[in-house]
Amino acid sequence: MENTIKKAKTDFPILDILKNRWSPRSFADKAIDKNVFFTLLEAARWSPSAFNEQPWHYVLGVKNEDSHFLKILESLTESNRIWAQNAPVLMGCCGRRTFALNDKANPYSAYDTGQSIAHLTIQAMSENIYVHQMAGFDKEVLRRNFNITEEYEIFSVIAIICLIVMFLPLSSAVLNSIPLVQTVYWQRIFVPLTLCIAVLSGFGCNRVVKNARQSDVAKWLGGLFIFSGISLFVLFVSTKGDLPEALQNIRNSSYWGPIFGVSLGLVVTLFLLLSRHSWNSKPMTLLGASAGPLAGLVLLLVSTGFLLTSGAPTVSATNHYVEPTKQVASLERLVGSSRVGSLGYCVDKGGILSEYNSSFNISQLNAYSATIPAGYFYNAWERGALPRSWRYALSIDLPWYCPQITTMQAARLYGVGFVLTPAYTFGPPGSSFVSNIGDEILYRIPSSGEATLVATKNQSLIPNVDTQGEVLKVAHPNESSMTVSTSSLNPGYLRIRLTNTPGWVATIDGKPLQLIPFDKMMLQAFIPPGNHYVTLEYWPRTFEIGLWIAGLTALGLLLLSIYLVLKRKSFWHIFTSKLPSSCPEPLK
Predict the structure, then answer these.
(1) 464/407 Cα distance (integer angstroms)
(2) Bridge-partner residues for 440, per DSSP?
(3) In whole angstroms, what is the distance from residue 222 CA to residue 262 CA?
(4) Three-class DSSP category at 89
(5) CATH of domain 16-164
(6) Distance from C-alpha of 472 to C-alpha of 58, rounded to nearest angstrom
(7) How many CA atoms lie less than 13 Å away from 284 in the CB half-sphere?
(8) Maximum CA extent, the chain
(9) DSSP per-residue letters across 375-387
(10) Which of 202, 285, 298, 473 has most Cβ atoms within 10 angstroms of its Cβ?
(11) Where are the domains of the chain?
């Protein structure tokens, strides 16, 4: 597929594959096929070198497959980590300083290694894969992470990526050609631009409703929809590209919504034009509504429907509920309501997806959200549940929280009852094998649960965070509440693996119970000896305030609407104006 987004302007003719080469920072979240990647390495291997020494060596990191990726990522500068963290493959490039035959210095090592990278880059371009080479990295960090000896000189770090398939290369090319635009991420303007378009649409809809009988309104509206239809056709034809069948189907289906909207807009325009003709000296009406409000209502409903359908999740496109894969069904049956953690990487292999599992009430100790508190990362990093490279997530707002459960201590701290590991990998020491699930192995963590009761002498003596307690049975009447029953001859602290966020309210035997932080990010409460029934409900004060504000706003709008309707009625003036005492005689 030819690159239509960015192309070099050369002074003399060169091969297109060289003209199209560039180093993007935005790319598709797509893995590189292993066979294709081996082809790139084979191209590098066949690069010429002095005495056929082939001094180049690479360290390879594949995202979500091993720890090498994070080790390479750790060596990058902050500006490079921001975008390189999403690359499917990172490589470190180094060359041997001496000849293997006689251990004499090889003065051509850097030259030959550069040639191998050039071969790899050109081969990648022929496969529609892009190579971004970086000098912004710490050589010593990379050397330490991979135990690279001084015998090898480290040259660069390389990101191998798939350029995102742009459905709008024409618009991208125009925007990229504007001076100074490339100095910022112009894609960010779509957020305020969407708001501006919504405001302008509101003014336009108001004009249609109030001034529908004016000829310029219908003409302008029709002209805009005709222009939109022509633009849509040009966009469809000019951005077709050479896409795989699956992506081609997605692209084609994405046009149905705009086509329907433009078509219905033209019908509304025709309706407004017809309504200008008199019918018994009255404007044409339909179902008792004038043309303007009816046209505005139709346009509003179409826009709302388009937004709802385009923003709906993919599972809503089917006429049945999402079905679990074989692996997910096995996991659900084996773990029940217990929490599942991962060893070494976020759980996304073997058909077991973290966000997908939430559809089947499988609780996993990972999350993908831009609102995850930074304290989560600090806490897990201090406990050794995140590798060193994850500390950079704090500075770049990486919205993926996924502690690595490598010890029994970490598992019990976070209430993890089961751990999934990659194939041929053992679980934390002390865990027991349960079953193979897809390409993963499931291990059980004994004496770990969502709630534990840790004994203490009195309320002032709070046990250490790693102190093991009695595992208690937890019930969840609904998604925002939980109940726990305790029975003990001694006082203790009830430790609950719930997020320490404002809004949790606890009671013990129907009376208020004070909650305090447990290891900063979770909750705990002091429980006196005896049999007790503890309940927790999530009802933040801000949510209650929001309900009051929404209710009062709705009431205010309702009263304002009633006032405006009554004000326009003729009988309203009967009660607000004085009638004359006598009527004049009619003229003869």
Answers:
(1) 17
(2) 422, 437
(3) 10
(4) strand
(5) 3.40.109.10
(6) 51
(7) 14
(8) 131
(9) HHHHHHHHTT-S-
(10) 298
(11) 16-164, 185-312, 326-444, 451-541
Residue 397 falls in which region: left (phi positive, over 0), alpha (psi -120 to 50) or beta: left
| Residue 496, SS3 per DSSP | strand
pLDDT-derived band at 487, boundaries 50, 70, 90: very high
Distance CA 343, CA 404 (A): 5
Q: Could you tell me which of 487, 486, 488 has the C-alpha nearest to residue 474?
A: 486
Q: What are the residues whose beta carbons fall under 8 Å from the beta carbon of 27, sequence distance 6 or more?
A: 86, 87, 130, 161, 162, 163, 164
Which among 269, 255, 256 is positioned nearest to 298, based on CA atoms? Answer: 269
**pLDDT tens digits along 108-161:** 999 999 999 999 989 888 877 888 888 888 999 999 999 999 999 988 888 876
User: Is the Cβ–Cβ distance between 502 and 541 less than 8 Å?
Assistant: yes
Q: The pTM is what?
A: 0.49
Q: 102 burial class (0-12, 13-18, 19+ CB within 10 angstroms)?
A: exposed
Question: What number of residues does the chain have?
Answer: 588
Q: Torsion over CA of 504, 508, 513 and 518, rounded to 10 degrees?
A: -70
Contacts 24+ apart (CB under 8 A), 419-426: 419/340, 419/341, 419/342, 419/343, 419/443, 419/445, 420/331, 420/340, 420/341, 420/342, 420/343, 420/347, 420/352, 421/342, 421/343, 421/344, 422/343, 422/344, 422/345, 422/349, 425/343, 425/344
Q: What's the one-letter identity of residue 516? A: I
| Per-residue model confidence as pLDDT tens digits over 232-242 | 888 787 766 55
Euclidean distance between CA atoms 414 and 407, whole angstroms? 11
Between strands 416-422 and 440-444, the pairing is: antiparallel
Q: Which residue has the tokens 């773990």?
A: 335
Helices (H), 76-189: 78-84, 109-126, 139-145, 169-177
Query: Taking the mean position of all CA atoms in its chain, how far away is CA 172?
Result: 23
